[in-house]
Amino acid sequence: MNAEVPASQATDIPLDPTVVDSLWAPDHKVLQVNHGSFGRVPTETSAFLHALIEVEDSNPQGWFRTVRDEIADARVALAEWIGVDEHRMGLVQNASAGMTIALNTLGPEARGRKIIFTDHIYGAVQYAIERTAARTGAVPVRLSVPLDADDDQVVAAIAAELDGAAMLVVDQITSATAKLLPVGRLARLSRDAGVPIAIDGAHAPGLIEAPVAGIEEADFWTGNFHKWPCTPRGTAALVVSEDRLDTVPLVASWYEHEPFARRFDQQGTASCANWVAAPHAVHLIEQRLGWAAVRSHMSALADAAQQLVCSALDVAVPEVGRTALSMRLVPLPAGVATDPLAAGVLRDRIADEHGIETAVTCFAGQGYVRLSAHAYNTLDDYQRLSDALVAISPTAS
Ligand SMILES: Cc1ncc(COP(=O)(O)O)c(C=O)c1O
């Protein structure tokens, strides 16, 4: 499979509910429909992680003397799982760290040149760009890309600005708008223009079988394992091209002069038990359910959930070009959740008053509920969410 995945992979293969419940103990109090932020860690992986932390806590010195090989094994297993050469993949805490590291490679040569990104960018990554601009004298350029833009329009908007830029920063799957961007085409375009590209694939692992296939030429790609793959939090990858193997982690460690991947394996005495436990989650889900079946279920369920909630709220399904495989937008009434602060207030109300963890996003002054569907969700979950939204009946404040 290529990074330029089709909009929907849904074939609606039902997952065995008994197996699903054995992986994720049913939670009758809180409903999770925001795996775009965090996936639920399988119960057995959580137990495995806690056993590791007990070992670490009881003999920290012994843990840190011997854990390096286990971290390396985990890294190799995760790299294999996403289909990447392990020598090009370093472990990082999260996609925010991965993107910051990519931006840190810019230096004085960036002065006066553009760092290009779109208005679909994740807010914290924009802050990282702004930091880089303040440090180097580069100029942040935020391009407007309409929600319904197709791949050709996205490529054209970026191509028009690319000449002489210091870096192109682009999402593989956008956060606020659940949109797939044509990163393969953009990676080729930026290579041809001699402009480094950093791809934010925070959502890609788990949703796309081989998230870096077709973008091997990209200078930097980062992706989270703690979202869709359901590993313990703080587990992500930074993948670099062959000519970027000199990239350094955020924190200088004793392993500074090791080859790229090993340089990232330990950052001082950061725990890393989560990294050691991470392959447990992805392999467990593969063995019990199969990731292909999980992806298919998530995609079909996200479609059905969006139809259900949009129809309950009497709103039209928005056009987003190629939509993310298991995330969908439901528009809120005009004037509701039009900025990140207001979106956060509504998200908290839905959680506090109805016990539902979901995402509320905004783009270009329009608020959305961003639906996510994972293996452990059923259509009933979205009926409960739409009942909550109808009960809250949010209006412009
Ligand atoms: C597109 C995108 N980039 C970056 C991030 C940051 O991920 P993290 O908080 O794990 O660093 C997110 C988180 O949701 C995201 O959606």
TrEMBL record:
Presence of keyword Membrane = no
Fetch the Pfam families from UniProt: Aminotran_5 (PF00266)
Q: Which Gene Ontology terms cover its molecular function?
A: isopenicillin-N epimerase activity
Name by which UniProt lists this protein: Isopenicillin-N epimerase
Name its species: Microlunatus panaciterrae
Classification from the root reads: Bacteria, Bacillati, Actinomycetota, Actinomycetes, Propionibacteriales
PANTHER family attached to this UniProt entry: HERCYNYLCYSTEINE SULFOXIDE LYASE (PTHR43092:SF2), L-CYSTEINE DESULFHYDRASE (PTHR43092)
Q: Which UniProt keywords apply?
A: Isomerase, Pyridoxal phosphate
Q: What is its EC number?
A: 5.1.1.17
Every Aminotransferase class V domain range: 69-385
